Amino acid sequence: MTRLRSKLTRPLYREELDKSASVVGEWRSLGIIMGAVGLLGRVAGFGPPPWESPKRMQSFVKLLTIDRVGSTFIVDLVKFALFQGLLVDDD
Prior knowledge:
Layout: H1 19-25, H2 29-46, H3 53-66, H4 68-87
């Protein structure tokens, strides 16, 4: 599987972007906001209150045993993690 190459063979300059792409791409607060979202996700996923951990694990196991889509998603996530190095070519 190969990645499609961009038709653009030269560098893209800020002046060539449309207004909305230029504003979002150069907005300094975007990195801070996206970093906060990522940090919040990690805290919610890895740092639950200790008294909720057994309850969450029981709920997770129950979900995987009764929901085919949920268990398939976990399998696909593991496969993607294993083959990501092969699928994404380093530039």
